[in-house]
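Figure 2 data, in text form.
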Amino acid sequence: MGRAWGSEVQSREEKFELKRQAVLRTAAALFRSKGVENTALSDVADALNISKPTIYYYFRSKDDVLLALIEEAVAQFADAEAHAEDYPLAPGVSNVARMERFLRRSMRILFDEIGTSFPTWLPHLLDGDKRAQLVAIGKPVDETAEKILRDGIADGSFAPSNVTATYRFVIGALRYIPVWQNEHGFTPAEITEEFVAFVMRSVRP
C-alpha cells in the first residue's frame, strides 16, 4: 500500500526533520552571533516564534543541540560524494595531497552556516558524559588526519613529529580562525589558501 496522499504531501517524519533542521540552523546562527554561553534555548524558540517547550520535542538540552551540530559537520566531512575534489581519502592520492584536501575540506565546512558556530564554544562547556560523546563523534575526523600524518611520515612526505600533538596544533588554529577572520578583512578563500600553505610548510621536510 502506498503512502497516503502519495508524495505530494510531506510525511510526519519529513516535517519533523525540517523543523529539527530549522532549530539547528537558528541555534547555530545565535551561537555564532552571541556565543553559546549567552544563548539559551528560549532564545532559539523566540527566534522561531515558537514556545520553549516545543524546542524540547526536538532537543532535550542545549548540549544536545551542540552535539547534533557536530554530528552534521562530521557527516559532511565523511561524505565522499559531496565536494569530491577535497575528499581526503580518495584512492590514488598522495599523502601530501590528502593533507591539503583534509585542510581545505575542514575550512570549507568551518565557514558554512553550521561550522562557523563551533569557535564560539569549547568542550569544557559540556559535562563529562556529553564531552565523551563529543570525542566519539569527532573521532573519525581525528583518525583520518592522524593516519594521513603517520603515512606521510612513513613515506618521507612529512617531517618526523608527534602526530597527535601536530594534529592538535592544527585543529586548535582551525577552531579560532572565524573569530578573527572577519576582523582583519580576509575572505574565506584568502584565509583558506594562507592556512593550507602555512600548515603544509610546517609539516613538510
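Caption note: The mean pLDDT is 88.
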